[in-house]
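Repro:
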Amino acid sequence: MTTHHDSCAARRIASVAAAGLLLVVSVGPAATAQSKVPRFERGDCLVNGDWAREARRECGWLVVAESRDHASANTIRLAVEIFRAKEPNGAPPLVVLHGGPGNSGIQLYSAGVAMSALPQHRDVVIYDQRGAGFSEPKLCPGYESVADSAYNLREAAEKDTKLREARRACISELEAKGIDRLAYNTATSASDLIDLRRTLGYVSWDIRGGSYGARLAQEAMVRDGQAIRSVVLPSPMARSFSVQAELPLSTQQAFERLFAACGLQSSCREAFPNTAQDFYAAYDELTKSPVAVPILRPDGRSDIVSVDGDRLVAGIRERIRRSAGLGRVPLLLHELRSGDRLRAAREVVGDGAAPDALANRALRELVNCYDDYGPTSLETLKSANARARPPFRRAVTRDCEEWLPRFSEASARTPVRSDIPTLIMTGHFDDRTPTEHARRIASTLSRAYLVEFPDEGHDARPTGCHAAIVMQFLENPTRKPDTSCVATIRPISFATTWEPAKLP
């Protein structure tokens, strides 16, 4: 197995390389070196806080070619943050991949990494994938704002019209700016990831990628497996099948698990003996007669948001995604049916803002369309809709055919077959990437360990038992981690009243 470059000789090489980069930035012959890609350019760190005071950080930009499949002079810069090991002991570096696609890993993970034990003995690298977060380019902010405003529209036809118009305007904008729409997908991002490793001088590293980041990590396992010591995949999206197409059944299963969990807790069962019936009845009632909820937006504007059946489903899904607020769902459903409907509806709406998981929608559409769209995913979605109940069905659209002229080959959608030690973490209530998906991913990995957490939803932040298992695995990926602490995790505590003192 290859070892981390952190030997004395490798450190000398890395120091020389870093010094060379600094010279390249400032002196005459640098013009030629500066035109080379990939390259790393040092820069200011983009997020700061009290947590940064004790951190040993280096920040900058990975400069790469925008297009990988044809000659182009266009380059883009990816924001990079490196937490240097405080006490290096030869442990390989760890790169942390954000999800979405479209979130910002630097914003999501910087503080948590700085305050954790991760950078004690190893370098930890965080970066924002192309088009995401602080990285270039910014894809269609106009489409983003229209999509945000359309989120609260009651009429589906009006929403579809606004999104279609914004989509076409976005495509025209990208073409006018010379942005290659086919350069934003997982295959290209995997090339960026390989360039990042090589440019930073790492011979091998560990990878942690959650949700969509796990999809990218799997691509790296196929393309750069000899340079990966181990992989941690929380709530993983798959490489070989479309999570989006299977979403109707995944979401229905997560809701059913939540209702069943209430039934297993005596106080919840006694207060709400018919949680599942409450949900389906509330969905039907809201679909027929939505509740108008007055809200005050963060910017100070007042508005009216209509809570219909679909908005109810979206509100519960957001609670599942955050693994927070799950304990109020049975109460919320009961109140919608036979209690304070307005208060319950206001709980569903919050401040009316679209979920932050929907950030960078244009990038998300380009990546998901290229990776997943095709006859197989369309048929899978149709089949899932036929088996799912009405609240969970999803529209079958051909929007992807507007976003892109072509899509990935079927050969790119195959299972990952590897003997790289892989730790897969799932949440019992995950409505996007359930444990059943993780088992399918693990079935072709000869050294995979799968752990399901009974109190989590989708891609929960690692704390307690979860974090301990990850640290144990990274310390020695060749040994099956001790997961006995999972049995000590207490189940979700369900609230039976609005009173804050009695909330979980």
